[in-house]
Amino acid sequence: MIPLRDNIPSSRTPIITVGLIVINVLVYLNQLTLPPRAAVRFVYLYGLIPFEITEGQLLIQHPVPLYGTILTSMFVHGGLFHLAGNMLYLWIFGDNVEDRLGRFRFLLFYLLSGLAAAAAQILSDPHSQIPMVGASGAISGVLGAYLLLYPHARVVTLVFFGWFVRVIEIRALIVLGFWIVVQLASGLLTWGAQVGGVAWFAHVGGFVAGLVMVIPLRRRAEGPDWAGRLS
Fold first, then answer.
1. Is 82 a catalytic residue?
2. Which residue of the set 136, 140, 152, 231 is catalytic?
3. Residues with Cβ < 8 Å from 206, sequence gap 6 or more?
4. In this prediction, what percent of the chain has a pLDDT beyond 70?
5. Domain assignment of residue 173, yes or no
6. Range of the domain at 146
7. Does the residue 85 lie in any domain?
8. How far does Cα 140 stand from its chain's mean position?
């Protein structure tokens, strides 16, 4: 399933969401200017390497403090589809969560979700020497928050049935519930495999962090949102 849009309008311009997308795109455009070997080195320089965090030994001299790679890794992507998929999810679901939290709290929430995602991935594979990059851990937190705030929102979704493709409206509870089940199952099935690929437990950790943090960070002036119950 690929979400295309939801039915919950934003009450104001999602400046932080747009800003995060712009930064991610600009960083990726910079990556494209690099020769192949330099592009790989860029990922190692700014990616998060679990082994370095757990062992305190550097595999490469980073241009930022070691723990700073937790932040920089959130803005580096491994390819166009990696970037496009992450930004699509952030664009669809980020604006509404930003609405409910407020701009400053949303930015804090986003970064903390990324931190939780990094911690989950490190715990799942503490000796991995493969760099972890991408915004998906932080965005997973946004998805967890959206699920809690707008479970009955309608999400226009591209659904594949073998060779057939349909565009249908599905409740956010189903779309995001299916998504997190896939992440958890994939993580458990590939746990311990020392190969590059998707940081499944980063997604799970970010999602859980989003569920936990969104209610305390939500603006107190606003009550429960029932707009998502539209049929």
1. no
2. 136
3. 113, 114, 116, 117, 120, 136, 137, 138, 139, 140, 141, 144
4. 92
5. yes
6. 2-191+199-219
7. yes
8. 4
Q: What is the 3-state secondary structure (H, E, C) of 101-149?
A: HCHHHHHHHHHHHHHHHHHHHHHHCCCCCCCECCCHHHHHHHHHHHHHH
**How many other CB atoms sit within 10 Å of the CB of residue 28?**
19
CA distance 108 to 138: 11
State pTM to two decimals: 0.91
User: Could you confirm whether 203 is annotated as catalytic?
Assistant: yes
DSSP 11: S
Q: What is the CATH number of the domain that holds 39?
A: 1.20.1540.10
Cα-based distances in Å from 151 to 148, 155, 188, 203, 230 = 6, 10, 26, 19, 11
- Both tokens of 61, joined, read 């001299």
Is residue 230, in this structure, part of any structural domain at all?
Answer: no
Q: How far apart are CA 63 and CA 70, in angstroms?
A: 13
Per-residue confidence (pLDDT) for residue 71, from 0 to 100: 97
C-alpha 21/C-alpha 75 separation (Å) is: 9
Number of separate domains in the chain: 1
